[in-house]
Amino acid sequence: MSLAPTIDIGPFLSQKSKLWKNDGIRSLMVLEDNPGIISLLSGRPNSSTFPFQSITLKLKPTLAGLPSATEGADPLTLTIENEELNEALQYGMTPGVPRLLDWLANFQTHVHKRVLDGSWQVHMGSGSQELSADIPISYWSMRDLGEPWVFLATLPCTLIEVNTDSQGLSPAKLETILSRWDRTHPGKPYPKALYTIPSGSNPTGASIPEVRKIEVLKLAKKYNFLVLEDDAYAFLYYGPEGQQARSYFALEVEVNAEKGRVVRFDSFSKVVSSGMRLGYITAAPGICNAVGLITTNTNLHTPTVTQIMAYKLLAGWGPDGFLAHCAGVAVFYRSQRDMFERVARKHLSGLAEWTTPVAGMFLYIKLLVHASNPDADCWELISTKAVAKGILAVAGRAFMPLRGPTPFARISFSIVEEDEADEACRRLREVILEARAEAEAAVRTTE
Ligand SMILES: Cc1ncc(COP(=O)(O)O)c(C=O)c1O
Fold first, then answer.
1. Cross-referenced SUPFAM superfamilies, in alphabetical order (predicted)?
2. CATH topology of domain 326-446
3. β-sheet bridge partners, residue 13
């Protein structure tokens, strides 16, 4: 067991999070299973009045099945019935269904090689986006750090932008901001958190290499901030084998000889189902408890039905079965990427540039809207002209807290078929050529 100390989370918690109080019911619910306890506690509806008899889930026959299905059971069928059904249909515990939490804690140990030593725990959310919006550190304080292209949930916080390139977040740029902090922000406290999407970033598609993560972690210790690792695309890695960077969560003890500085967000959306709305954080107990207080006071808990569906699937698969499934999903997205790049090269060569992603479902395309100005903003082109031609994509400005300008647009290749992708790129070519012709005509008029 590692003797590295756990950092004190208290100073990172926001004032707002300290206003939430335990509700006096949920704090006692943990005692209900104690022997001899008769609970008159909560206003749970009586399960006998619920109209459902059972839930049967059929897995796709293309899946290998559940290796640990009980003797004689169909390995492609999951059934939720009797007591388990009552539990699934009933109010549940705030942090999540306990056996799912245990499964996930073991899974995190398996994947990130972090000993389950009390320095971290898992807390469920109704999607990881809910958790990143609820995270109770000084996240709303307008002085936290993030990539210029950030995922939408963080936009209200007006982050301080840290430049990224094709390799993701730049530690050199981060260091520059922090080392000049006293000069650029006299009298202002240092940022308390860095928000980052390390794998197949949304929107840039970039994945940060391990050497950069190590530099970022060292800076986190030196300047005392938390790293919010939003890793929704971690399992959609399809780059060269053996080269996937370890997570910030995996690296923090080795790099900084401390625990608790990384708050990790995982999501089931991209590998199991997005409609089930299941995500989880892996973080210091102080963070998870503070998130739990917000959950208790807002939506009580993440839906139990989908948590139990997930548990049955995961328990049947085991950690390696789940990872094998994720690897199959990643192969699917790699072929989508290859297909999209093929048609993009056919129609957009000379009119757009991009870096090939090694994870995720996005191409971040730099549109060369003006022949003479490679950095011309593409907002107008994407949000008006492209829409008029029947193509929807997202201009990079939509993801930038400080609102750009930027020539980049996010293209999602996750669900599009090859013939549609081909037509979309053909139309985008027309839009770019028209915009270039207009720009050239405007230059001629002013000459
Ligand atoms: C980086 C990132 N985090 C989180 C999410 C949302 O995940 P969830 O569906 O678990 O809320 C997304 C969804 O697109 C995402 O791109």
1. PLP-dependent transferases
2. Aspartate Aminotransferase, domain 1 (3.90.1150)
3. 137
